[in-house]
Amino acid sequence: MTEADLLHRAAEALRDPAESHPNLPRLVIVAGFCDLSPRQLSFVDALASVEGIEAVQIHWPSLSAPNPGLAWPAQTAALLEESYGFERPPEPPPPGPERPAVLERLEAELFAPSSPVLGAEAWGPGPAPLRIVRAASREDEVELALTQVRAFVLERAAGSWRDVLIVASDPERYRSLLRRVAQELGVPLRVEGRRPLTSAASVRGALALLEAAARFDLGPLLVAAASPALGLSVEEADRLARAARRRGLPVLGTAERWRSLARELGGPAGTFLLEAAELGLAIEESCEEELERIERASYEARGDFSQGSATTRGATGEIRKVLGRLLRPARLSALGDRPSAGAIQSAAAEAAAQRELLALLEDLDRLGAPLYAEGGAQSGGAALRPSEQLVARVAEEIRAARFEPRDTRRDVVSVLDAQSARTRSADLVLILGLVEREFPRAPDEDQFLPEATRRALSGKKLNEASAGALRLPVAEDHAAKDRHLFYAAATRARRELWLLYPGFSSHGAPRPASRFLGEVEALLSSEARQAVTLKRSPGQLVSDDPEHLLTWRAVRRFAYRYMSAVARPSQGERSLLGVALFEHLLRDPYERARMALSLGEPDPRLRPRPAAALERVYSSSELESYATCPYRHFVRYLVA
Q1: DSSP string, 44-90
Q2: Please, are residues 146 and 181 in contact by the beta-carbon 8 Å criterion?
Q3: Distance CA 367, CA 312 (A)
Q4: What backbone phi and psi angles, to 5 degrees, belong to 499?
């Protein structure tokens, strides 16, 4: 039955006086209505003639070009108004003002400086479209950026996450931090670009399995067993670990002992251990066959051992077969009844990494990448066995490989590097990581042609017959390229531009801002610079306003800070809130373990009654030190 038949039957049922409609809706919504077919108009006419239906809403997709068989939405709306008295929805608000003049002038001055400075009058009344932010740490930088992104989108009537673009000096460095904070703030985010293959948990588990099989070492095998992608449940992995500890890890260094333990275990854990043992034997067999092939080739070449060299061919094929059987991509059914978009995206990334890993192993098997020279690879002063050389070579290729998981989401905030941002634009653009040695990047010293050698050779001719002089790139050339990328990224904003950098390291040491940021500040007058600049210090990491506690770490810092102010009358309300949050934190076993490590467990005051911890008044600096790093707090306040 076609859609037209369904519409025809629905219209007939609505018009039939013999039909009773006990559950007649008061509101009918017709989605996807866009053509003027007789069936659709008959259905709308039937809806309009039925008593009891108070309103009918018709939604149709907007069309940007004519299409045969489809009518323009304006024509459809006019017909419905004329025939049935439908009311046209209110027109969307007119688009906002054009790009702020200050951003236009900033772009012009960056690429073609002329000397006039930009004053506060350049952007008129209202908030400045340009902001320069010195954050107290890298985490504070990300929290400030995503908080602004959230406010920018949610406060607009027709805001979309696609209206925001984040440019990071090194997206890979910011990836985990951005994803964690974005998940807490409810900001859909996509970090674009290729990521290391070893960033996937399943690939790290596969690497641990290869290292265990090459040496028959149960240590890496237990790491591999803990990876859910390799097929073992948590209970089976724990059972394998307990059995290995009973037998003793150092004495299980042969395939026969692994088989014996596998027979004793049985079940999925025994099968997994048996697969690992067979993989180790298959690697050894393939390496021996490869060495025999080299010997035959050298014998046929009359003792010339340079005629052949060991490759990854054969053994990597066996590795691929075993991993193809063991690796289990995450299924939607395993993600729960209502998996979040982040969980689905993580599962898709893991599946993409597994496909890339198996494709890489297939290429290594087909092409035959050379291994290390015999005896050339050392481990603790001893030459590696052929199987260990093979696994080391494969691991080197895997660690160097990168992949890019497919992300089909559309309405998300994109995070990318400055190179990729040249072809993009957005209403709000935020540039992260504007510190020296990150943006611009620190120059990499070439081992073969150091910087001094490059400078000495530049401008010289190779020989008398050469037409031109030798031109080698030096540090200034790399800085000029990064400067152009920064200019391009800074001019991608249509409405607002935020320039952020972490002003302090994780140890509290000041970090110099990027020289490119200084070039932007030089274009502003002193009043304008003061108006657009926000400087935060580590002491401002703890917010005094509870409404700003948007992330879990912000809540933790607030609780620790105001626990120390219980005895101060001026901090009464905040101290009570800090005590309540502190008690809430103590309900989490992980949080209790972290506190016990720093506050001197065993301490009975932490266990039975959290409020009893108030018998000791902790200083704000001590609690801030603990919130930053519990281990450093332990050394400084307890050990010392």
Answers
A1: HHHHHHSTT--EEEEE----SS--TT---HHHHHHHHHHHH-PPPPP
A2: yes
A3: 8
A4: -115, 115
Residue at token pair 């120059």: 443
3-class SS shares of the chain: helix, strand, coil, % to 5: 55, 10, 35
Amino acid at position 296, single letter: R
d(CA 619, CA 596): 17
CA 209 to CA 398: how far, in whole Å? 13
Amino acid at 25: P
**What b/e readout covers 411-445, taking b as 16+ CB neighbours within 10 angstroms?**
ebbbbbbbebbbeeebbbbbbbbbbbebbbeeeee
Tokens of 260: 């014996």
Place of tokens 């350049």: 122
List of residues 6+ apart from 52 with CB closer than 8 A: 21, 24, 26
Question: What tokens were used for 9?
Answer: 């039957």
Closest CA to 365 of 320, 402, 332: 320
pLDDT tens track for 327-366 = 877 665 566 667 777 777 888 888 889 999 999 999 988 8
Predicted TM-score (pTM) of this structure: 0.70
Which structure tokens are listed for 255?
């395939």
- Say which residues have a Cβ less than 8 Å from residue 427's Cβ, sequence separation at least 6: 152, 163, 164, 493, 494, 495, 496
- Give the DSSP H/E element, type plus range, for residue 132: strand 130-135
Q: 31 is written with which tokens?
A: 């989605």
**Pairwise CA distance, residues 158 & 548, whole Å:** 24
pLDDT for 272-331, tens place per residue? 999 999 999 988 888 888 888 777 777 776 555 444 567 778 888 888 988 888 887 766
Two structure tokens written together for 202: 């399943």
- C-beta separation of 194 from 402 below 8 A: yes
Phi, psi of 134, rounded to the nearest 5 degrees: -100, 110
Instruction: Dig out the tokens for 373 from the structure.
Output: 């020279």
Rg of the chain taking only CA atoms, in angstroms: 33
Q: Is the bond leading into 443 cis (omega within 30 degrees of zero)?
A: no
